[in-house]
Amino acid sequence: MAFSNEQLERYSRHMILKEVGVKGQKRLLESKVLIIGAGGLGAPAALYLAAAGVGVIGIADADDVDLSNLQRQVIHTTPDVGKAKVRSAEESMKAINPEITVHTYRTYVLANNIGQLIAEYDFIIDGTDNFPAKFLINDACVLGKKPFSHAGIIRFQGQLMTYLPGQGPCYRCVFSSPPPPDAVPTCRQAGVIGAMGGVIGSLQAMEAVKYIIGQGELLCGSLLTYDALNMEFRKIKLPRRDSCAVCGSQPTIIAPFDYEQAACEVKG
Amino acid sequence: MNITVTGSTKEYPQGLTVAQLIQLEKVATPEYVTVSINDEFILSATFAEKTLNEGDHVEFMYFMGGGR
Ligand SMILES: [Zn+2]
Known about the structure:
The complex is a heterodimer.
Chain A: H1 5-10, H2 12-15, H3 21-29, E1 32-36, H4 42-52, E2 56-60, H5 85-96, E3 101-105, H6 111-119, E4 123-126, H7 131-143, E5 148-154, E6 157-163, H8 171-174, H9 187-190, H10 194-213, E7 222-227, E8 232-237
Parallel strand pairs in A: 1-2, 1-4, 2-3, 4-5
Antiparallel strand pairs in A: 5-6, 6-7, 7-8
Helix pairs in contact in A: 4-5, 4-10, 6-7
Chain B: E1 2-5, E2 8-11, H1 18-24, E3 34-37, E4 40-42, E5 57-61
Parallel strand pairs in B: 1-5
Antiparallel strand pairs in B: 1-2, 3-4, 3-5
The structure holds zinc ion.
Zinc ion binds next to helix 8 of chain A.
């Protein structure tokens, strides 16, 4: 594949980097990333991956844009209120970079569709806002041998980790099962500072890009935590848990399944 | 005895258990915290009897469910 003059200009700041170069940019253009959740985390991740020229971006979300989303979900604008989030996200991504392909999935991601959804992608970004979805994505990616970036945000805090098949620990190694519905506060109940999605979602995009170009150290075996009030990043070493129900030596989870949703979170 | 908890080293009483440390450090969701000592996960069922030793390096990992 030869680069057009327009591409050479569009991606010049990438291609000048020795870690990216022509080869890395070509890899980005040929890569496919799925973003689950077009919200606080998914918005910056989608915008940066589109701008980076990731060839195919899949975006999954069942909801419509709500006014209360706009404090943080920078991929949607005020005139988008009421529009399907995946449509609004697609329009923003295509406006930044018309040469990418966007696949939209206006659906909840559940055990009965996740396997098929992730199968065609090279890397998955978890931008969801609830534990059933986060455990489902973990299990499906471990079982489907797909690398993915997990993240969570609340109030002034955020954290993320990257799973690489056959290498690092998975999310379930760290948290063996979800907390009971409503036991741990969600953003809706506790609030979240808007820029937190920007920080953590951009770091997720960074992990995806590094994975695609094959450069640097990924957060595999590490949990990066960010406390905005103390302005502190910490990298916590994560061991593997041999007794992990999905990636351990004697797994008991052999197919993705759905957990019950917290009552207050059923409607996203 | 000196223990490093979430990156800062402090003096703690001898024979301190993980459960007592969780209380001392005012962990917000004590029932749902994941604990590692010297980069090994500790089973939550053993928090009450697991004692800490001089030089241990303890990390707490919290559920964060938000994202959209
Ligand atoms: Zn695991």
